[in-house]
Amino acid sequence: SKEGKGGDLNVNLVNLGNIYKRMGKDEIALRYYKNSIPKSITAENHRALSQTYLDIAEMVWKLNRSDSTIFYAQNALQLAQDANIIPTVVNASYLLSSVYESINKARAFDYLKMAWVAKDSILSIDKVKNFQKVEFNEQLRQQEIKQAEQAYQNRVKVYVMASVLVVFFVV
What angle (nearest 5°) sits at the alpha carbon of residue 98, between those of residues 93 and 99? Predict the structure, then answer.
Protein backbone atom coordinates (compact mmCIF):
# COMPACT_ATOMS: atom_id res chain seq x y z
CA SER A 1 0.00 0.00 0.00
CA LYS A 2 1.23 3.48 -0.77
CA GLU A 3 1.82 5.70 2.25
CA GLY A 4 0.23 9.14 2.28
CA LYS A 5 -2.40 8.12 -0.28
CA GLY A 6 -5.26 7.29 2.08
CA GLY A 7 -3.73 4.08 3.44
CA ASP A 8 -4.18 4.93 7.11
CA LEU A 9 -7.69 6.26 6.59
CA ASN A 10 -8.55 3.12 4.63
CA VAL A 11 -7.36 0.87 7.46
CA ASN A 12 -9.22 2.93 10.05
CA LEU A 13 -12.47 2.79 8.09
CA VAL A 14 -12.15 -0.98 7.61
CA ASN A 15 -11.39 -1.44 11.32
CA LEU A 16 -14.47 0.59 12.25
CA GLY A 17 -16.50 -1.55 9.85
CA ASN A 18 -15.14 -4.70 11.52
CA ILE A 19 -16.06 -3.37 14.97
CA TYR A 20 -19.62 -2.54 13.94
CA LYS A 21 -19.92 -5.89 12.15
CA ARG A 22 -18.97 -7.72 15.38
CA MET A 23 -21.51 -5.61 17.26
CA GLY A 24 -24.19 -6.79 14.82
CA LYS A 25 -24.71 -3.29 13.40
CA ASP A 26 -24.45 -4.39 9.79
CA GLU A 27 -25.82 -1.24 8.16
CA ILE A 28 -23.26 0.96 9.93
CA ALA A 29 -20.50 -1.55 9.16
CA LEU A 30 -21.53 -1.53 5.49
CA ARG A 31 -21.27 2.25 5.41
CA TYR A 32 -17.71 2.18 6.77
CA TYR A 33 -16.70 -0.61 4.39
CA LYS A 34 -18.12 1.22 1.39
CA ASN A 35 -16.42 4.47 2.45
CA SER A 36 -13.09 2.62 2.63
CA ILE A 37 -13.28 1.42 -0.99
CA PRO A 38 -12.11 4.64 -2.71
CA LYS A 39 -9.37 5.01 -0.07
CA SER A 40 -8.18 1.43 -0.73
CA ILE A 41 -8.16 2.11 -4.46
CA THR A 42 -6.12 5.30 -3.95
CA ALA A 43 -3.73 3.50 -1.57
CA GLU A 44 -3.46 0.60 -4.06
CA ASN A 45 -4.13 -1.79 -1.17
CA HIS A 46 -5.47 -4.76 -3.14
CA ARG A 47 -5.46 -7.12 -0.18
CA ALA A 48 -7.60 -4.79 1.95
CA LEU A 49 -9.83 -3.93 -0.99
CA SER A 50 -10.51 -7.56 -1.94
CA GLN A 51 -11.22 -8.43 1.70
CA THR A 52 -13.52 -5.41 2.05
CA TYR A 53 -15.44 -6.44 -1.08
CA LEU A 54 -15.76 -9.94 0.37
CA ASP A 55 -16.92 -8.61 3.77
CA ILE A 56 -19.57 -6.50 2.04
CA ALA A 57 -20.64 -9.44 -0.13
CA GLU A 58 -21.04 -11.69 2.93
CA MET A 59 -23.06 -9.04 4.75
CA VAL A 60 -25.41 -8.31 1.86
CA TRP A 61 -25.83 -12.06 1.29
CA LYS A 62 -27.18 -12.32 4.85
CA LEU A 63 -29.61 -9.53 3.91
CA ASN A 64 -30.78 -11.58 0.88
CA ARG A 65 -29.44 -9.11 -1.70
CA SER A 66 -28.25 -11.57 -4.35
CA ASP A 67 -27.36 -8.99 -7.02
CA SER A 68 -25.22 -6.96 -4.62
CA THR A 69 -23.64 -10.14 -3.27
CA ILE A 70 -22.65 -11.20 -6.79
CA PHE A 71 -21.27 -7.73 -7.59
CA TYR A 72 -19.07 -7.48 -4.50
CA ALA A 73 -18.04 -11.14 -4.44
CA GLN A 74 -16.98 -11.01 -8.10
CA ASN A 75 -14.95 -7.86 -7.40
CA ALA A 76 -13.32 -9.58 -4.42
CA LEU A 77 -12.60 -12.66 -6.51
CA GLN A 78 -11.11 -10.72 -9.43
CA LEU A 79 -8.84 -8.63 -7.20
CA ALA A 80 -7.79 -11.68 -5.20
CA GLN A 81 -6.95 -13.60 -8.37
CA ASP A 82 -4.97 -10.67 -9.78
CA ALA A 83 -3.02 -10.22 -6.52
CA ASN A 84 -2.74 -13.98 -5.84
CA ILE A 85 -4.56 -13.78 -2.49
CA ILE A 86 -5.59 -17.43 -2.36
CA PRO A 87 -7.69 -17.45 0.86
CA THR A 88 -9.90 -14.67 -0.54
CA VAL A 89 -10.18 -16.55 -3.85
CA VAL A 90 -11.41 -19.59 -1.88
CA ASN A 91 -13.93 -17.63 0.21
CA ALA A 92 -15.27 -15.50 -2.65
CA SER A 93 -15.65 -18.59 -4.85
CA TYR A 94 -17.54 -20.48 -2.14
CA LEU A 95 -19.82 -17.48 -1.61
CA LEU A 96 -20.51 -17.13 -5.34
CA SER A 97 -21.20 -20.85 -5.52
CA SER A 98 -23.79 -20.47 -2.75
CA VAL A 99 -25.42 -17.48 -4.44
CA TYR A 100 -25.64 -19.21 -7.83
CA GLU A 101 -26.86 -22.50 -6.34
CA SER A 102 -30.50 -21.45 -6.69
CA ILE A 103 -29.99 -19.35 -9.85
CA ASN A 104 -27.64 -21.28 -12.11
CA LYS A 105 -26.40 -24.73 -11.04
CA ALA A 106 -23.70 -24.90 -13.72
CA ARG A 107 -22.22 -21.58 -12.68
CA ALA A 108 -22.47 -22.57 -9.00
CA PHE A 109 -20.48 -25.71 -9.80
CA ASP A 110 -17.87 -23.67 -11.71
CA TYR A 111 -17.31 -21.45 -8.68
CA LEU A 112 -17.20 -24.49 -6.42
CA LYS A 113 -14.50 -26.04 -8.62
CA MET A 114 -12.59 -22.75 -8.52
CA ALA A 115 -12.73 -22.80 -4.72
CA TRP A 116 -11.53 -26.43 -4.64
CA VAL A 117 -8.60 -25.69 -6.95
CA ALA A 118 -7.58 -22.65 -4.89
CA LYS A 119 -7.94 -24.57 -1.63
CA ASP A 120 -5.92 -27.44 -3.09
CA SER A 121 -3.16 -24.99 -4.03
CA ILE A 122 -3.05 -23.82 -0.41
CA LEU A 123 -2.76 -27.43 0.74
CA SER A 124 -0.05 -28.10 -1.85
CA ILE A 125 1.91 -25.07 -0.67
CA ASP A 126 1.57 -26.31 2.92
CA LYS A 127 2.76 -29.77 1.89
CA VAL A 128 5.82 -28.30 0.15
CA LYS A 129 6.58 -26.17 3.22
CA ASN A 130 6.25 -29.20 5.49
CA PHE A 131 8.49 -31.27 3.23
CA GLN A 132 11.10 -28.49 3.18
CA LYS A 133 10.90 -28.27 6.96
CA VAL A 134 11.45 -32.03 7.34
CA GLU A 135 14.33 -31.91 4.86
CA PHE A 136 15.91 -28.95 6.67
CA ASN A 137 15.55 -30.68 10.05
CA GLU A 138 17.20 -33.80 8.62
CA GLN A 139 20.11 -31.72 7.32
CA LEU A 140 20.50 -30.15 10.76
CA ARG A 141 20.45 -33.60 12.36
CA GLN A 142 23.14 -34.82 9.94
CA GLN A 143 25.30 -31.78 10.77
CA GLU A 144 24.87 -32.44 14.49
CA ILE A 145 25.93 -36.08 13.98
CA LYS A 146 29.04 -34.97 12.06
CA GLN A 147 29.87 -32.44 14.76
CA ALA A 148 29.45 -35.07 17.47
CA GLU A 149 31.68 -37.50 15.54
CA GLN A 150 34.30 -34.76 15.08
CA ALA A 151 34.18 -33.89 18.79
CA TYR A 152 34.59 -37.59 19.69
CA GLN A 153 37.59 -37.94 17.33
CA ASN A 154 39.14 -34.82 18.86
CA ARG A 155 38.69 -36.24 22.39
CA VAL A 156 40.31 -39.52 21.30
CA LYS A 157 43.29 -37.60 19.86
CA VAL A 158 43.67 -35.63 23.10
CA TYR A 159 43.57 -38.84 25.17
CA VAL A 160 46.14 -40.52 22.90
CA MET A 161 48.44 -37.48 23.10
CA ALA A 162 48.03 -37.30 26.87
CA SER A 163 48.84 -41.01 27.15
CA VAL A 164 51.94 -40.59 24.97
CA LEU A 165 53.09 -37.64 27.11
CA VAL A 166 52.52 -39.57 30.32
CA VAL A 167 54.51 -42.54 28.95
CA PHE A 168 57.23 -40.16 27.67
CA PHE A 169 57.61 -38.39 31.03
CA VAL A 170 57.48 -41.62 33.02
CA VAL A 171 60.23 -43.18 30.94
Answer: 95
